Amino acid sequence: MAQRKSPEFTHFDAQGNARMVDVSAKAETMRVAEASGTIRMNRDAYAMVKSGTMAKGDVLGVARIAGILAAKKVHELIPLTHPLLITSSNVDFAFQDDQNLIHIRAAIGICGKTGVEMEALTAVSVAALTIYDMCKAVDKAMVIGDICLVKKTGGKSGTYIRDGHLG
After folding, report:
1. What is the pTM of this model?
2. Which end of the chain is less enclosed by CB atoms within 10 A, N or C?
3. Annotated catalytic residue, options 13, 22, 133, 139
């Protein structure tokens, strides 16, 4: 039986110093990452978001734009990430009435030398934070959670699909 090679932390050099990974020799490939998360809120806030009557305006429209903008700025927020030319970005929402829960999903695409997992995760995170910001006058106890990578395609490591998701 072949031994599986342990994954290496690529953001450290041989002496343990942090570094940006050199991707100059890597081939450009089509890469897509999808992430998801949730925000749970009280019944009043949920009803206002769903009906579009929150005092600050179109909560999900603003959150969608915030998520897309955040994906484009990951290299300014997270050390050692590369600036990327994102070729597609979608942030979508789904309501779950029985739990006053909004599901957030982001899909980010690129033709490049490095993946866009951090961009998708950041898009979901900032979209959720934007919803919180726009609704906090009605519910300060909202809970943001379950942020995770759902799927990624492209690159040397190939396709990843999180257990329990259909992709």
Report:
1. 0.89
2. N
3. 133
Whose tokens are 């990430």? That residue is 81
As a CATH number, domain 29-158 is 3.30.70.640
User: DSSP assignment, residue 127?
Assistant: H
Q: Domain spans of the chain?
A: 29-158
Buried b (16+ CB within 10 A) or exposed e, 124-151: bbbbbbbbbebbeebbeebebeebebbb
Active site residue 133: yes
pLDDT digits (tens, 9 = 90+) for 53-96: 999 999 999 999 999 999 999 999 999 999 999 999 999 999 99
- Does residue 44 come out as left (phi exceeding 0), alpha (psi in the -120 to 50 range) or beta? alpha
Token pair recorded at residue 127: 């979209």
Give the separation between CA 156 and CA 144, rounded to whole angstroms.
32
